[in-house]
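job 3f2a | input accepted
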Amino acid sequence: MRHLDFFLISLCVLHLFTQCEGRPLRKRTVSEVQLMHNVGVHQRVKERQNWLLTRLQGVSSGSSVETTRTKRRLSPEELSDLSGMTPEEIQYALDLFDSLESQQA
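job 3f2a | predicted structure (105 res):
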């Protein structure tokens, strides 16, 4: 009798596993589905960040002098040896140099 009970219980469990096919026994609520989606997105973002960090470990960021020095834009009043130019021309030249510098970076 004991073997028969064990057999029937195992048969019921086997039937339950074959019918569920990995699906939950009840429907998930919208918040549960959204939470699972957010967890999946978070895991993929962390994987990408870790991959990027491993790729960037060997990359040099340039000279340390450039990183410690703060760049600031010069105003036309700070340039004293350009007396033959108008402030608009000086501003145009500064804008041109800034655009060239941003293209090189």
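job 3f2a | The two ends are 82 Å apart (CA to CA).
job 3f2a | closed
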